[in-house]
Design brief:
The structure is a homodimer of 239-residue chains. Chain A has eleven helices and three strands, in the order H-E-H-H-E-E-H-H-H-H-H-H-H-H. Chain A is mainly alpha-helical and 239 residues long. Chain A has a three-stranded antiparallel β-sheet. The first copy, chain A, binds a DNA duplex (21 and 21 nucleotides) through helix 3.
DNA sequence: CCGGATTTGTTCGTATGTATG
DNA sequence: CCATACATACGAACAAATCCG
């Protein structure tokens, strides 16, 4: 007979996170994948019902989204998913093209072998997924892995504030980017970009890496159709 | 006789802000001016008492501070004012020296005369205050006006995301900077810097402006004593 | 212009998790 | 290891503000 004290701990602490944080992440996801569309109103009451919790954690999650700039909240009026203008999207790409090369070059300076291996693993995973036929779910998964790759690539820079800013920039345009990836040949190109990045990192060549990152970002920024165009695409999809 | 419909709206909505936002701002202030010191524990209950409100608005304010990176919060444990390492302070200066020149040059491109006048007004106000003897309160006021000046200078860039990021960077090192300003001759130098900036803006010379901003930031970054030194200074003050 | 319906903001009580003895 | 003390997290009800008819 097994003594109780010898049994493995069964009560896994899933609850190490606040409920509000879990809801925050879910809402983030829904905004990024378009389940909650730009301009849509968010009802705290309704969400609370859907999650089966009280309004309080939902409320906190909404405040956090507001702080992150994913929604806009006006006292006593309500909260809506933020609508980005064309100008704002371009601004974000400009900021990325300044900040991500910086993170890259610093990362090349400080990256250690374990981190390189990690990056390689993500890339392997990515290449597996890139072979699957494009659909909403694979597009989402590709986006997630791509973000993970980039964050892992920048992390060795040891610049935590910068990492947080970049993370925020990605999230704010995630929805737009996922809609583009869904109807493009981006996955193939992504593979090549990543391989080049890894190559530079292995050689600790931060300068070349930064240039590459900047060049690719500027290229992608040009590819982004105007918000109006995206809106038209949506209209077409719903006909 | 004036018809009622022609009268200006009299009921000014002072209450347009949430209580949590007001508390957020107050706590921000207290962290920045050192009333709440780095590493100090924050008790939601205690603050609620002090503000004469319930714990919920305080809680939300603390969550926002946490999102902004001014405090660190662990579920069921508590919240402490964030302690910046030397490395993190230097990172923030590096980011500023990249982002603020960018904002400057764009601002020079789009600034209109009204905005130039506004900037000049703030500068006039600043010069008045700079003549006062240095004390904690004048130092605080100088910091506030200096920040306002810079934000107004960057605002014409029309890059709202960038402005928000810069604002966050300023706030995160406000405490450290105020402690330095309190014991330095910074105010005089600030005047000259600002006049140069205004001169460039008047001529719409974004390139020179950006170079100036960058140069000054790099200079100030060098002047920042290490966190250890600052800590020693505090020790000395309390003896 | 006013009153009900709805939604948000706040209060308070209770549950839950963490740290000490 | 367990019990107690403490602070935080959540839930339900009340109050305040907005919108619509």
């Amino acid at each position: 007979m097994t003594r109780l004290s010898e049994l493995p701990v069964t009560t896994i602490k899933l609850n190490n996170k606040r409920m509000s944080e879990q809801i925050f992440e879910q809402l983030c996801d829904w905004i990024m994948d378009g389940t909650l569309r730009a301009g849509q109103k968010i009802s705290e009451d309704e969400l609370a019902d859907r999650f089966g919790v009280s309004r309080m954690p939902v409320r906190e999650a909404v405040r956090l989204l507001s702080a992150k700039g994913l929604v806009e909240s006006i006292p006593y009026i309500g909260t809506t998913v933020r609508v980005l203008t064309d100008h704002e999207v371009r601004e974000i790409y400009l900021l990325r093209s300044v900040l991500e090369p910086l993170a890259s070059s610093k990362a090349a300076e400080y990256i250690i072998d374990v981190e390189l291996e990690q990056l390689q693993n993500i890339q392997t995973e990515l290449e597996k997924n890139a072979k699957l036929p494009l659909s909403l779910s694979t597009s989402k998964e590709l986006y997630r892995l791509n973000k993970e790759f980039h964050m892992c690539m920048y992390a060795p820079s040891r610049m935590n504030t910068l990492l947080k800013i970049i993370d925020g920039l990605w999230d704010s345009i995630a929805n737009i980017r996922m809609r583009i990836a869904y109807t493009s040949i981006y996955p193939q190109q992504m593979q090549h970009e990543h391989r080049d990045y890894i190559h530079c990192l292995k050689q600790r060549d931060g300068e070349t890496l930064a240039q590459l990152v900047k060049k690719n970002l500027e290229f992608h920024a040009k590819q982004i159709p105007s918000i109006d165009k995206l809106f038209e695409m949506d209209q077409a999809l719903h006909q």
